[in-house]
What we know:
CATH topology: Mannose-Binding Protein A, Chain A
Strand content: 35-45%
Structural class: alpha+beta
Amino acid sequence: xxxxxxxxxxxxxxxxxxxxxxxxxxxxxxxxxxxxxxxxxxxxxxxxxxxxxxxxxxxxxxxxxxxxxxxxxxxxxxxxxxxxxxxxxxxxxxxxxxxxxxxxxxxxxxxxxxxxxxxxxxxxxxxxxxxxxxxxxxxxxxxxxxxxxxxxxxxxxx
Length: 158
């Protein structure tokens, strides 16, 4: 699998914020009910803030979630955690307008109390004030078209 293009940005993540605070900060107008603290238990680390380097990878049409994240891992990048994904949306909404970003794989407890493996992605629209961002979950086995990018993360160097 070949990386067709990539882009890097730095975010400043506050690991002391709750999921609810982060969703509000990113100004999401739409997110599934399954995105709640129960499915995303966070260890709140008061006062811990870190710079994180995010790299957006484009693989082209027909990219599978699993294969794409394996390629990212080979290049020594990891998937974002939910805090980093929401912070990316809050600090760089312009990136989400350009193209949607697949940020991580998660296991979600669904309505039937059955765990489902999902991919989490974020996207935005220039309509609205200031931006309209959305957070979505899809089946992990999804294939993605050329519009989607995948995010990898590393600690940013000081």
